[in-house]
Write a structure and sequence with these properties.
Blueprint: H1 9-18, E1 32-33, E2 37-45, H2 52-69, E3 76-79, E4 86-90, E5 114-121, E6 124-132, H3 141-152, H4 183-192
Parallel strand pairs: 1-6, 2-3, 2-4, 4-6
Antiparallel strand pairs: 5-6
Helix pairs in contact: 1-4, 2-3
Pfam families: DUF2927 (PF11150)
Protein name: DUF2927 domain-containing protein
């Protein structure tokens, strides 16, 4: 979603949560997990990822969970590779190719560096699938993993705004050197899942 310059907290939150341009109505519904504990794990590890790529991806999941849990949002993320709510797929599929054979809602979609697909019913997220392409470099994993898991929490809209390039993990124009949540990212998570 395109915008210009710094946004106030309400405009930022509405942009990432419901695709609302500044001072405009929502373009998408608000969606959230309906439970307080959401599991996250790697379920597909294609052979192309054996070795260093897999280790980097596993470490990136762990760090993303730690950083997201540290926000104080009301949802707790737990690591589990046993039928996780947020299922991560490391696919031997290049960027720009169509995904096939995953047995998930990802099949038939064109893969970017990474892609998040949510199953939603009546505003409640029931499952999330995140796919990673084999064309991503190891140094991109930490940033992209954090972004995609945050989007799997319902803050699904990227920000296209040069101001946020180094200030938000949800920046469409980020160069993947940003590996931490920005102040407004944290605010948006806490607003989406208010602490008790």
């Amino acid at each position: 979603m395109r915008s210009e310059g710094p946004l106030d907290d309400t405009a930022f939150y509405r942009l990432v949560a419901c695709a609302a341009p500044p001072d405009q109505p929502c373009a998408k519904p608000f969606i959230r997990w309906g439970k307080s504990v959401v599991t996250v794990g790697l379920v597909t590890r294609d052979p192309a990822y054996l070795g260093g790529k897999l280790k980097r991806a596993e470490a990136s999941v762990e760090r993303a969970i730690q950083r997201l849990n540290a926000t104080g949002m009301a949802v707790q993320l737990n690591a589990s590779d046993d039928t996780p709510d947020i299922a991560i797929h490391l696919l031997d599929t290049p960027r720009g190719a169509q995904m096939q054979g995953t047995g998930t809602p990802l099949d038939g979609l064109t893969l970017a560096n990474a892609l998040t697909r949510l199953t939603v019913r009546a505003g409640t997220i029931e499952r999330a699938h995140i796919a990673f392409s084999n064309t991503m470099t190891r140094r991109q994993y930490e940033s992209v993993m954090l972004e995609e898991i945050m989007q799997a929490l319902g803050l699904i809209t990227d920000i296209e705004n040069p101001y946020y390039r180094s200030r938000s993990i949800l920046s469409q124009n980020a160069d993947n050197r940003l590996k931490r949540l920005g102040e407004q990212d944290i605010m948006a998570l806490r607003r989406h899942y208010p602490p008790a």
